[in-house]
Amino acid sequence: MKKIIIILAIVILAGTVFLLAKNVFRKTVPPAPANSISMSTPASENNNPPQEMPVPSAPTDNQNTPTVQNSNGFQSPLDRAAERVTKKPFGIYITPKTSPVQPERFQGYHTGTDFEIFPEEQSADVSVRAVCSGKIAVKRSASGYGGMLVQNCTLDNQSITVIYGHLKLASITKNAGDTLNTGDEIGILGKAYSTETDGERKHLHLGVSKGFSISILGYVQSQSELSGWIDPCSLGVCK
Ligand SMILES: [Zn+2]
Fold first, then answer.
1. Which residues fall inside 5 Å of ion ligand 1, going by CB?
2. Distance 105 CA to ligand 1 centre (A)
3. What is the per-residue burial (b if ≥16 Cβ within 10 Å, else e) of 162-186?
4. Which of 117, 127, 137, 236 shows a CA-CA span of 20 to 30 A to 147?
């Protein structure tokens, strides 16, 4: 009987020691380092949350925060610009049959980038901002565009011409000769399928041509003509 009690006591003691040891061990082992932390990161920083953890942020962050200006002095004309280039990017060749927009009346290489609206913007005012700093050359209604504004800017000391198409002309308060700085509000997008867009869907056409061009063509018929135009996204305005 005495033997059994001693054995039981040893078993209980051993169990307790084991559990205690396990607990202490767990506390002293550092958490596994997250993948994003480099080898040189001191161990004391391993308490940072791993990257996959959702970072709380204000849900309206993207709505009203002006986009950041690029080192070339350019910035996006609309919020969430990258998400909007879904139908006609720069240089796409379209015909009435192959166009991603139906029905289509144009044919040729698209000289600009089209920025689409989000469903909730269909009946809302969508502000368009200047992508660069420069004087307004033209502000008028034009065939294929409806309300249109042409701005002269500089890129790497070279003159360029920027065309904003499908704007509500009456919403543009500045006039030809006035200067628009990067990020300045130009006006709002024209109403879908109205004279403000010349019958097109509500969207922004942004074209950039080399030099102080008077051409406002939205489409050209050859690759060589297209070489007179610059992909707006290459200027960092589609971010
Ligand atoms: Zn377009």
1. 114, 205
2. 12
3. bbbbbbbbebbebeeeeebebbeeb
4. 236
Tell me the CA–centroid distance for residue 67 and ligand 1, in Å: 22
Q: Give the Å distance between the CA of 154 and the centre of ligand 1.
A: 22
User: What's the confidence (pLDDT) of residue 67?
Assistant: 64
67 vs 88: CA distance, rounded Å: 22
**pLDDT by residue (tens digit) across 49-90?**
444 444 444 444 444 455 678 888 999 999 999 999 999 999
Share of the chain above pLDDT 90, in %: 68
Label the pairing between strands 134-142 and 127-129.
unpaired
Query: Distance from the CA of 169 to the center of ligand 1, in angstroms?
Result: 17
Give the CATH number of the domain where residue 180 resides.
Answer: 2.70.70.10
What would the two tokens of residue 15 be?
A: 């169990």
Say how many domains are in the chain.
2
- The predicted model scores a pTM of 0.72
Q: From the CA of 113, how far away is ligand 1's center (Å)?
A: 6
- Please determine, for residue 164, whether its predicted confidence score (pLDDT) is greater than 60: yes
Q: Both 147 and 81 in a single domain? A: yes
Residue 2 structural domain: 1-56
Distance 200 CA to ligand 1 centre (A): 10
Domain membership flag for residue 5: yes
